[in-house]
Amino acid sequence: MIGDNVVPAHAPEDLQRWRRIHRDRLIGERLDVSLAVRDLYARQITEKLNQFFPNLAKLLVSGYWPCNGEPDLRPWLSSVRLRCGHVALPVIAKKHAPLQFRLWWPGAPMERGIWNIPHPEKCIEVNPDIVVVPLVGFDNAGYRLGYGGGYFDRTLAAAPNRPRIVGVGYEQSRLETIHPQSHDIPMDFIVTECRVREFNR
Ligand SMILES: Nc1nc2c(c(=O)[nH]1)N(C=O)[C@@H](CNc1ccc(C(=O)N[C@@H](CCC(=O)O)C(=O)O)cc1)CN2
Ligand SMILES: Nc1ncnc2c1ncn2[C@@H]1O[C@H](COP(=O)(O)OP(=O)(O)OP(=O)(O)O)[C@@H](O)[C@H]1O
User: Fold this and answer.
1) What's the CA gap between 102 and 76, in Å, rounded?
2) Residue 150 Cα, ligand 1 centroid: separation in angstroms?
3) 6 belongs to a structural domain
4) What is the pLDDT of residue 201?
5) Residues 6+ positions from 65 with CB-CB distance below 8 Å
6) CATH number of the domain encompassing residue 123
7) Annotated binding site
8) Residue predicted with more confidence, 6 or 186
9) ipTM of model
10) What's the number of domains the chain is made of?
11) What's the half-sphere exposure (Cβ side, CA atoms, 13 Å) at 120?
């Protein structure tokens, strides 16, 4: 196994390989956590989101439909609507292009996209104020390791009004560094079951 504190060689294919090894390891390790414990972590993350973002009225929050052991924050997304906020979900409308954000509400008609992940079928495209991003891994400087498509990086680089970016994941997914590249967009906050990290940039 390649240790996470070993700087990979500079060739892009070495970094890609390093990221793939750690991505697979971290996804495997979070799927090894029991459902009951993941459920507890999701509730602890929700509490921290509520403490840090007490007032979401009139704001548009993008979440995600959980897969691969990601924290299930759908109850929190529903609660955002009860607090007069709006909710969107990300959609891969085109490969290797920025994500779309489509308005979502409980009971919205859904269809399945990449990896069978459900997303709203009606195309009401919106620009979120806050984007909640699931983390496969994260590092001490607030950079995210995702599923390797570069989708969130492309999307946030192209976003018209830079939203606040909140990475959510588990403390066990922390790496010393993901060896950030110029295309990697850092998070403004990282929320885990243990703590909230705020990065003032
Ligand atoms: N729940 C959830 N929904 C989400 C995301 C997410 O992270 N979590 N996304 C966040 O972006 C988007 C989906 N992101 C994806 C990113 C990559 C691949 C993918 O096919 N990866 C390839 C490897 C790509 C490569 O190495 O070039 C693979 O696994 O084979 C699929 C979905 C939108 N929806
Ligand atoms: N702004 C961008 N413009 C063009 N290509 C990009 C951009 N951002 C990332 N990419 C491409 O996407 C590839 C994968 O990026 P990276 O390994 O950072 O994905 P990731 O953040 O883990 O994935 P995801 O966001 O889909 O979960 C990079 O090798 C890069 O070529």
Assistant:
1) 18
2) 8
3) no
4) 77
5) 74, 89, 117, 118, 119
6) 3.40.50.10420
7) 70
8) 186
9) 0.92
10) 1
11) 21
User: Tokens 């990282």 sit at which residue?
Assistant: 190
Is the alpha carbon torsion for 74, 76, 77, 79 positive or negative?
Answer: positive
pLDDT tens profile 57-105? 999 999 999 999 999 999 999 999 999 999 999 999 999 999 999 999 9
pLDDT tens readout for residues 117-149: 999 997 789 999 999 999 999 999 999 999 999
Name which residue sits closest to atom 17 of ligand 1, judged by CA: 149
Is pTM beyond 0.90? Reply is yes
**Token pair 């439909």: residue:** 65
Question: Considering the domain boundaries, does residue 146 fall inside one?
Answer: yes
Give residue 189's identity as a one-letter amino acid code: F
Annotated binding site for substrate: 70
- Is 49 within a domain? yes
Contacts of 13 by beta carbon, 8 Å cutoff, 6+ apart: none
Domain that holds residue 129: 12-198
Mean pLDDT, to the nearest integer, of 184-188? 97
Provide the pLDDT confidence category of residue 46 given band limits of 50, 70 and 90: very high
Residues with CB under 6 A from ligand 1: 64-67, 70, 90, 92, 99, 114-115, 117, 134, 146-149, 151-152
| Percent of the chain as helix, strand, coil, to the nearest 5 | 30, 20, 50
Helices (DSSP H) in 110-176: which residue ranges? 151-158
Say if 139 falls within a structural domain: yes
- Give the integer Cα–Cα distance in Å for 169 and 190: 8
